[in-house]
Amino acid sequence: MYLKYFVILIVLVSAALFGGFIGYKLNSNAVSKETTINVKSTVKEILPAAEYTSLVYHYTSVITHSEAAKLFNFDLPLTEKKAIYTIDGSIKLGFNSADIVVDISYNNIVLKMPRIKILSHEIYPETFSLYDEKTSLFNRYTLKDANAIQLANKSEMELKVRQNRGLYLQAMKFAEDNLRQMLENLPGIKGKYTLIFDWQGAK
Length: 203
Description:
This protein is α+β, with helices and mostly antiparallel strands. About 40% of the residues lie in helices and about 35% in strands. It has helices at about 1-45, 145-160, 165-185, and strands at about 50-65, 70, 75, 80-95, 100-105, 110-115, 115-135, 195-200. The strands form three sheets. The protein has a three-stranded antiparallel sheet with strand order 1-4-7. It has a three-stranded mixed sheet with strand order 5-6-8, covered by helices on one side. The chain has a two-stranded antiparallel ribbon with strand order 2-3.
């Protein structure tokens, strides 16, 4: 009879321990999930809210231009003109911070970063300077010519920047350095999580 009660006691104790273990696991999962949500929210609140400029590329272009009036693909005599200009500009590289996706993986905060792109390109007409100009009697430079030359140079500079992988790598590095500085010392993150940057399109 005592054996019967002993068996029942063992069963009850085992059930209690198992139930406690399940409860502990469920509670741990709930706390872990809540912590993950809190960390994500904290990171999203600290990240910039709009476009983020990580690199500003300043340049001075030297533009050599020449043309002549044509007739049936032949240059007409006395219509050739040549000029050398310089102009300053700046191109901003960065991304839209709203496109950053935050994931928590174990003790890592993974920031899935959007592609670096050209955010803006500004040229400074006040720096447009003429260094040499040769015009003919029948074909002189006009304000319309100057505007066309500036726009053509603007497009050419944007193409050069897009083809310059080094600038994009610099923009990515500067963004990582700045965001690390903003996030790594936050309470709840410092010493607990490692920041990992996963750039879209990075090779």
